[in-house]
User: Fold this.
Amino acid sequence: AAPRPWKSTKGRDHFSAARTVTQLVRSTKTIMADFVDKQFSKDEVADKVLEQYDDETTRVFYQCVMGGGGHDIHFGIYKSPTDGVKESSDYTTEWMMTQMEWAKPIDANCHILDLGSGHGGGSHAMAKRWGCKVTGYNLGPGQNALNMARCVELGIDHLVEARVGNINDPLPAEWTGKFDAVWSCEVLCHAGDKVALFKELVRCLKPGGVFVFSDIMGADGADETALRAFTDRNATTFMGRPSMYVDFIKESGFKYVTWWDGSHHLERYFRGMLHQITTNRKEMNAKGVSDEYLNNWVSSLTDRADVQKAKGVFAWGVFVARKPEVGELV
Assistant:
């Protein structure tokens, strides 16, 4: 099926402060999220993530091209030949929630941390499915405003909050033992010290709490230079590998549960993003997204899809881990 035209649903009142920040940023530089030949230290990456995701025009781009007009801004799982990027992204959210509740029963009494909550698609889905409390922790105030505006529309703003925070800093001290589960979707490629972050998550979970996350990675054995079609357009420190994440899980004190490999969906998703750009270019132009920015993405995504088809250098999927119960062997 042809990708559906993208229409923004953001609430105006929630964006006044974020728009003021954006206008100040734009007065000093043009934001293009161009990271050619660059990867960043733990201390540098936060500013680059804001550049990539939280300018008003880049929010337009990601919601259209990765979200298909929705709030699930992440890679997708395809079930049928007619699925587009929005449907596939929705399926990823459903699959991650299924993985979560098989690792630990989730109900309305639970409190979930959405780490790197972005536009809030995961937070919305979990609050709607379980009626539970969800705390989003995300670097971009503009994304958080978009998240909360949508929560008001869905009638779940009493369940969801979105806090500004940097995953490369220690998490709040008062969060020790606070959460029943942690959710993170396409965020950890921006974490400079993944083991240190995982140890923080162990601290913040209750005993028996579950950690479910997805991430874009290099395939085991892939050379970092082969991943440039991704790293040239994304603010990364280093790209993990599936085997590395399994080691990080164990090293940080989690109990490893499983890794589901969805890498075979990536090429189709990259080409779906290209289709979204072609279909929605004029509307994105009208909302301030430049042809230069879009053309950079077309080049990157074409290279990314082609190298994935030829060499399979990227990996993606869902990991599940648990904080051991008191006295449980790791």
Residues 1-33 have pLDDT under 50 and may be disordered.
